[in-house]
Design goal:
The complex is a heterodimer.
Chain A: H1 2-21, H2 23-59, E1 63-67, H3 73-84, E2 89-95, H4 97-108, E3 125-130, H5 137-148, E4 153-157, H6 161-202, H7 204-212, H8 217-260, H9 272-298
Antiparallel strand pairs in A: 1-3, 1-4, 2-3
Helix pairs in contact in A: 1-8, 2-6, 2-8, 6-8, 6-9, 8-9
Chain B: E1 2-10, E2 16-25, E3 30-34, H1 41-48, E4 56-61, E5 64-65, H2 74-79, E6 81-84, H3 96-107, H4 111-124, H5 140-152, E7 158-162, H6 170-185, E8 189-193, H7 197-203, E9 206-211, E10 214-218
Parallel strand pairs in B: 3-8, 3-9, 6-7, 7-8
Antiparallel strand pairs in B: 1-2, 1-4, 4-5, 9-10
Helix pairs in contact in B: 3-4, 3-5, 4-5
The chains are: A alpha+beta, B alpha/beta.
Chain lengths: 304, 224
């Protein structure tokens, strides 16, 4: 058992050595695999970030109740208390017309031009935040309708339609990335398979001799399988590096853009779990591609 | 060691390479198989090493009926036979030592054992000083001796050789055949396919002559 393990280790290091002996060929293959894997991985990371953008708004799903302009502050407070007691309501916040104007000034960019108005055109607003369950688009919509009918409320606004659309688009994109990943995974199989095929053909004489002196198929297969495994593993690692580098390059501009929207959004990286999947997936694809090529071509090489 | 009963070999296309060949070789014998090229010598050796299968008839090598040997057992079967090729089939990107050690590596021996046995085999063929050299830097005779060292490094009971002197001048050929003779003296069964009549006359061993796939001479069939 120990000698078996030792032999595997020997072949493992031998295969690594082979890669080092032909660094250019090895690098080319690894680069192709890396770029191929980087594409779906980058899209996956991008989608994850987009989902966080949508998710941020989704959590902030709230219903804006615009009160009638002539409603006094006390009436608004009473109404707020009334709503607070309703089922499905988590929180109610009162925004006075003055506060609303101040916020509008800050966000709209009109700034001091608004000072020219001699009265505040904005109504008081009650921001109603539904509880987790009631925050789902359909339930929130119903709640908004109920709230809209309360006396003193001019209009209830709940606009999550675009969040739902974004969600649908993201799900579509996710499916697309999955399909792309599948196709590119097959491409990696073929790339590794082809590299291993060439390696087998270039060592045809050696394989023949080893078969003649009693080398088993497993013995002959082993170095090729390890070669495929390493190419896939290093390809996965390169893909991770490529994605991380791309995201790092994008981080600055994204931060600036988010800042312009008044958001503290930061681009998230691929994450440890996705990275590990990338490495293991690469290794698995390399091994499998090699396995397929070896199975097909080794049997064809018989001494004679 | 070897027993053939009514062996036929027909290649696709209808060419009969062997026709009704029967003979037996004892464990301590040295046999020359001779005949013109195309007489069936190579086919015979290929059947003995399981490179080819007989179309009909029974082949028993080393107490194993080769027709009943499953594919996965073939490597283990071949480890018990040493084979020397006319073109020696050495690997030119490996040193003499690595070439000779290959059957031991394949069989999964320990590092220490591999070194010990490979050096012993090289010593036997008189090439111990050249173990670190590459085959291409050696003479034809020396290359053939590396091939012989590789064939005997597993200590096989049966040694097969296909035209081992085919590419060598007379002096070197003598040395090679003497080497085979020496192994035979130490109890190894040796079968050499050759058309080198000089060697056959020199050693006066059993000769099996083939012509068009049939046995036409079998001097001293001791087993029969």
């Amino acid at each position: 058992m120990r000698s078996h393990l030792l032999r595997h280790l020997q072949v493992l290091f031998y295969s690594l050595g082979e890669l080092a002996r032909a660094p250019l060929t090895a690098f080319m293959t690894i680069a192709v695999i890396g770029i191929t894997l980087a594409l779906p991985a980058a899209l996956y990371a991008l989608l994850g970030n987009l989902q966080r953008v949508g998710g941020g708004w989704d959590q902030g799903a709230q219903i804006s109740l615009f009160l009638k302009l002539d409603a006094p502050r006390t009436a608004a407070e009473t109404l707020a208390g009334q709503i607070r007691a309703m089922p499905g309501v988590a929180r109610v916040r009162y925004i006075s017309p003055a506060a609303a104007l101040k916020e509008f000034k800050r966000l709209s960019g009109f700034g001091n031009t608004l000072d020219l108005l001699n009265s505040n055109p904005l109504p008081a607003v009650l921001l109603v935040r539904p509880t987790g369950h009631a925050a789902r688009p359909r339930a929130a919509q119903d709640l908004a309708r109920t709230l809209g009918k309360l006396p003193g409320v001019a209009q209830a606004q709940f606009d999550l339609e675009w969040v739902r659309r974004l969600d649908a688009i993201l799900r579509l994109a996710q499916r697309g990335v999955l399909i792309l990943a599948l196709l590119l995974g097959i491409a990696v199989l073929l790339v590794v398979g082809n590299t291993i095929r060439l390696a087998i053909l270039s060592r045809r004489a050696e394989i023949e001799v080893i078969k003649l002196i009693g080398g088993t198929d497993a013995f002959i297969r082993r170095p090729f399988l390890y070669a495929g495994l390493f190419q896939g593993l290093f390809g996965g690692l390169l893909a991770w590096i490529l994605v991380a580098a791309s995201l790092a390059l994008l981080a600055g501009p994204v931060r600036d853009l988010a800042g312009l929207y008044g958001s503290g959004f930061e681009l998230a990286g691929l994450g440890l779990r996705a990275g590990a999947i990338l490495l293991l997936g690469g290794a698995f694809l390399g091994w499998t591609g090699s396995r397929l090529a070896v199975g097909r071509h080794l049997r064809a090489i018989e001494p004679g | 060691m070897i027993r053939l009963n009514n062996v036929f070999k027909r290649y696709p296309g209808g060419f009969d390479a062997l026709r009704d060949v029967s003979f037996e070789v004892g464990a301590d014998e040295m046999v020359f198989i001779t005949g013109h090229s195309g007489a069936g010598k190579s086919t015979l050796l290929k059947i003995l090493t399981l490179i080819e299968h007989a179309s009909r008839g029974q082949v028993v090598v080393n107490n194993k009926n080769v027709a009943r040997l499953p594919r996965r057992r073939i490597p283990h079967f071949r480890r018990e036979i040493g084979v020397v090729f006319q073109d020696n089939k050495l690997l030119h990107d490996r040193t003499v030592f690595d070439n000779v050690a290959l059957p031991l590596v394949v069989a999964g021996l320990s590092h220490l054992e591999i070194g010990r046995r490979a050096r012993a085999a090289l010593a036997k063929v008189g090439l111990l000083g050249k173990e670190k050299m590459y085959p291409i830097t050696l003479s034809g005779g020396e290359q053939q001796r590396v091939g012989i060292a590789r064939a005997v490094v597993n200590k096989p009971a049966l040694l097969l050789a296909d035209e081992p002197t085919g590419n060598l001048d007379a002096d070197m050929a003598d040395q090679i055949i003497d080497l085979f003779h020496d192994f035979n003296q130490h109890g190894v069964c040796v079968v050499i396919a050759t058309h080198d009549l000089r060697q056959i006359q020199r050693l006066r061993k059993r000769v099996i002559g083939l012509k068009d796939g049939e046995i036409i001479i079998d001097s001293g069939n001791q087993a029969a």
